[in-house]
Design a protein that fits this description.
Layout lengths: L13 H17 L1 H18 L3 H6 L12 E7 H4 L3 E6 L2 E7 L15 E5 L2 E2 L3 H10 L3 E7 L5 E6 L9 E4 L2 E5 L4 H5 L6 E3 L2 E3 L1 E6 L2 E2 L7 H9 L4 E8 H12 L12
Length: about 260
């Protein structure tokens, strides 16, 4: 015999070292906090690595494009998520009223009226629950959202720019629709919204995919946004009673000006 370990033809004693590996692995896994950090990091990495080119293109702002009422996950670093959202408890659910407009990592990912379903896989229904989970997480934060589930979207078209849209707006509220007009033809009805099992009016929260401040009190600003599309307009509306609750809560935030979503 040449003196080389028969179990490992490459180096003497290597096989005995390998026998220690299972014990080392077990000891490492016992440090659960370390393991959780590694797991979250690998999980987030694998999500992006498994996407095809089209999906990555759709996530140019960090979130896949999605339709009203659909569910999506958004991944953020803890420092970008903690204390940067204004959440409101309504009808035993959590709703997004605003987010820190000075935080670039949050831009183009959220909409006023999004429903927060869970944080890091844990269902949440109160602000305290959501904040506690964010505070306890070691690194990444996964937010499961339902995109504006109370919203309705209408696309309108007119042949000429001078043609009237056929609806009346007061501040950011839709107050009337002219029978037979463009808005009527598109399906708009002034008091067809429903909130807390009661009928109510609509509030305009987006025009042509651009946000309208929930604190907007200028009718001219709304019309300017609608007419910016010349002959086409896409408006997103949510129940006015619901928007009132969000806006009133937002005004109570000491720095609410920084949390108001606007175009």
């Amino acid at each position: 015999s040449s003196g080389i370990n028969a179990e490992c033809p490459l180096r003497p004693g290597v096989s005995s070292r390998f026998k220690l590996l299972p014990k080392l692995v077990i000891l490492t896994l016992c440090d659960f906090s370390w393991f959780k950090q590694v797991y979250l990091s690998l999980r987030e990495t694998s999500i992006y690595e498994n996407m095809d080119d089209k999906e990555m293109k759709d996530m140019s702002y960090g979130v896949k494009k999605t339709d009203i009422g659909s569910t999506l996950s958004i991944y953020l670093q803890k420092r970008h998520a903690l204390n940067n959202f204004h959440l409101v408890e309504v009808t035993s659910s959590l709703w997004l009223a605003g987010w820190n407009q000075k935080e670039p990592a949050l831009m183009n990912k959220f909409h006023v009226g999004d429903q927060l379903l869970s944080v890091n896989g844990q269902p949440v229904t109160t602000v305290a629950e959501a904040n506690t989970i964010m505070e306890m997480t070691p690194s990444g934060v996964e937010l499961l959202l339902k995109r504006m589930p109370l919203a309705a979207e209408y696309k309108m078209h007119r042949e000429k720019e001078a043609e009237d849209w056929g609806m009346q707006i007061r501040q950011n509220r839709l107050v009337d629709v002219i029978h037979g007009g463009i808005a009527w033809t598109a399906g708009l009805q002034p008091f067809s919204a429903e909130f807390a099992e009661k009928a109510c009016s609509w509030a305009i929260t987006q025009v042509n995919k651009c946000p309208v401040s929930v604190l907007c009190r200028s009718t001219d600003v709304i019309w300017s946004k609608i007419n910016s599309g010349k002959t086409d307009a896409l408006i997103t509306l949510q129940p006015s009673e619901f928007v009132n609750i969000l806006s009133n809560s937002l005004l109570e935030h000491p720095h609410y000006e920084d949390f108001v979503a606007r175009s």
